[in-house]
Design a protein that fits this description.
Length: 212
């Protein structure tokens, strides 16, 4: 089972001071999956990031990120597959990214991911604007979110109330997020994803399953 809801883009800015150790400022940007393959526990709708309106929003968002002057950008990509990410980013910087993807990934689902995901649409765009030569893979996948196993254990233990609680929490999230995906702009969706309340909710959905 894939991760639940929150994806993080990390923007790092290294700053130094006289006679002080190296320090870094980190900007974390939580977002949803722009290209939603339906692999998460909560089944949310797809948001079309390719419309002219959303593309204009992305340019504006990246412009605001550039004020932070990031010198490193980290994304949810397997850390041991950095070479593939480098090839993709090199094609993006070269201006022939779409042609490369169309030729390399003829299968529509694969092609859509490489064209529409937040890694490409947001992180690559921000990296290019910041004149970065590399986007860094940081995802560690040798772990799991055993939602199915947890639910099966609840069922075996006849913890009906706990199962219902988990299912209702997921359903509430689906209903709320789907309504936002239908009515919010991309900017509003990203602002919403980074509120304190949303972060508390996301963590609770993880931790409640784990601790129970």
């Amino acid at each position: 089972m894939k991760q639940f809801f929150l994806f993080l883009l990390c923007f790092a800015l290294a700053t130094t001071g006289f006679a002080q150790p190296l320090q870094s400022d980190i900007l974390l940007l939580g977002t949803f999956h722009f290209n939603n393959p339906g692999g998460d526990v909560a089944k949310t709708k797809t948001f079309d990031v390719m419309t002219p309106k959303v593309q204009a929003e992305l340019e504006n968002i990246v412009k605001k990120i550039s004020v932070f002057h990031p010198n490193k950008i980290f994304v949810e990509w397997p850390w041991n597959e950095q070479q593939e990410l480098d090839v993709l980013y090199e094609a993006y910087l070269g201006g022939n990214y779409e042609q490369y993807i169309n030729a390399t990934y003829p299968k529509p689902s694969k092609r859509d991911f490489y064209l529409k995901s937040e890694i490409i649409q947001l992180a690559f765009r921000a990296g290019k604007k910041a004149k970065l030569t590399r986007i860094h893979a940081i995802d560690y996948k040798k772990t799991s979110f055993p939602f199915d196993s947890v639910m099966k254990a609840m069922q075996t233990a006849k913890q009906v109330a706990l199962m219902q609680q988990a299912q209702e929490a997921s359903k509430r999230y689906e209903t709320s997020q789907n309504k936002k995906l239908e009515t919010y702009t991309l900017t509003q969706l990203l602002l919403d994803a980074n509120t304190k309340e949303k972060l508390v909710l996301e963590k609770a959905l993880y931790m409640n399953c784990v601790k129970n």
